[in-house]
Amino acid sequence: MPLPRDDEEPLRAEVIRMASTYGRYGYRFIAGMMRNAGWGQALPSQRSHASGGKRV
Known about the structure:
This protein is mainly alpha-helical.
């Protein structure tokens, strides 16, 4: 199992916050907003963070 990243908890909290606010727009919209907010390097695993660690 890979070691957690230093920014994993803040990333997870931000993804959950954005998904709660903009959930009906979908993950692509949220991914774009995350990139614009400076989370670009952390996004490949965004979908697993938003679903609580399960791949969707």
